[in-house]
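Hi V.,

You were right to ask for the full record rather than a summary. Here it is.
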Amino acid sequence: MVFLEARNLSKSFGSQRVLHRVSFTLEQGNILCILGPSGSGKTTLLRIIAGLETPDDGSVLLRGRDLRHTPPHLRRFGMMFQEFALFPHLDVSGNIAFGLHMRKFSRAEAAKRTAEMLSLVGLEGFGARRIGELSGGERQRVALARSLAPYPVLLLLDEPLGSLDRALREKLLFDLREILRRIGMTTIFVTHDQAEAFAVSDTIAVMDRGGIVQMDTPENLYRNPASPEVARFLGLSNLIDGRVESASSVATALGSLIAPAQGLAAGERVTVLIRPDSARIIGEDEKPALGMSIIEGTVQDCLFRGKNYHIELKVQGGQTLVFEVPIEAGSPEIGRAVRLAVAPGSVFHSSR
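Predicted structure:
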């Protein structure tokens, strides 16, 4: 049986439609990330699942049971928000135990569970500390422990790392995923940050203008976005207009590019997406391997990023493409004309 199902959820606030017939399923133990820009409807969707908003139409089912008339406190869902909403007048243990006391756990049971949660999130010995004494990352861990303490059947996270700086966020991403994996917690994670979605989730649902436009694994989503709009939101900006030449090539302003165009008629207009990590610099006289596309342009900018160089390449027609090229070829000089070989299978089309 499906663990959680959203079925044709719609919601409007006045004349503004926020959600339109949103449907998805979630299996027990999986982590689903709802990814989308501001105003896409992702937080409204999460609040409907939590019972904090009522849909105009549609339903949320938990193990096949409709939750429409089940109030939030009886759904047994844990929630964690960007602001953490910790109680400053309580110490760390008091914050974690708050939900346990609300659910009438005995003092001994609450103390035992609080100690377990402190250990789980790596805060042993922090129980007596005041919230004001904690760093941002430590507060995030307390908020997570408080959400998990009352044995929720589902954890709902709304931009939980949004208030943290980038370096701390990246560290906590892996810690968060490891904790959720260790306890097998079914989770819905809302974010506008692609890096967070790719790092934490088993499945990503991309939302735009009140609907889910693609739902897939992180790997498949990155390699095969469903549309140019999804690609752009994922930061894949190398989109080139073209027309189908054959089942394996597309004519563009940059020349003929290898792209899987099976099932499309010759002359059909398409958009070709070239992934930024798909290319390497080759010499002027070097012949590319069979099946590779060649792109030529002038380096406009170059940034060293450890394992690769991030380059901006101005190509014919004035368009700028971005690539992450291996460092073995050396640092491309700004203003230099270069040739890039795009690996077979790394160029694909998306119909317009």
